[in-house]
Design goal:
By secondary structure, the protein is α/β, with parallel strands linked by helices. The protein is built from eleven helices and eleven strands. Helix 7 runs antiparallel to helix 8.
Length: about 325
Amino acid sequence: MYTIVMDCMGSDKGPSVLSEGILRFVKEYQDVKIVAVGRKEDLKTLEGNERIEIVHADDVVPMTAGPLEVMRAKNSSMYKAITLCKENNYDAVCSCGSTGGFLSCATLKLKTIEGIERACLMTQLPTKIPGKTVTTLDVGANNETTPEQLVQFAMMGKIYTQKVKGVENPKVYLLSNGTEDEKGSPEIKEANKLLRESAFEGFEGNVEAREALNGQVDVIVTGGFTGNIFLKTVEGVGKLFSNMIKEAFYLNWHSKLGYLLSKKGFDDIKKTMDYKETGGAMMLGLNGIVVKGHGSSDAKATFSTLRVAYNMAKVNVVELMKEGVKGVN
């Protein structure tokens, strides 16, 4: 039985929506127990389920909270969720609340694994090849990153893609404004140099954003500021594309007929580009499984966030990461 702790407060849509996602999840996955942390009066729909434990927490960490604010809010759902995960050796902890607060508190509580200076947020982005995703990191944990830390992100992304996704020889790229080694920010240029000098196996150089999702790239490495903009741009373009197609097909009855004839194909595209299908971003490099869900998560996205945590626990990703980093250092 796997145990996942869920911080149920602090998201944009509130605990009732997250609770709906939790109920769907435990219904589909019979080998999971959820520890739901939040105000009991807001989690009444979860009562009576033998595989859901409710832990009361009065305070809610605001979206703007920094690391010190979260560490001082010891009665907040976020702090309690991370503490419960650590003290009880639970399999994973998830939150859709403040990104900075959650990741900072998780780092301070769980610590980074030996050989890693900073943890980073990793997610899977869709590509033009059906069913294939690209491992992308960092997508928001660190606004400032050294070249050496980018090299460590490349190493973790490669290990994850090999061990979890089963890609034998992942192609690793740095996200830049040009494919030449001389292009990019000072940190990207220096990271490129370090990866070249170390003969990092699988490093292919730089990739531009317009080619990053072409299906030929297995791992994209970038700093958290750039990575977060890239991630949200992909989400925004996907939403824009979906809305534009919908509007185009509703122009007249001819276009509506065309939509009906091609609906299956467009539904597949919509599913591929829907961030709610991907779920949360995992924080690689910590001594524990930490998954950050989207702040605006609905029940579907909450379900997907829990699924990410569950899948990571099943493959024991933390131990895989420790072994991989140890083998390189």
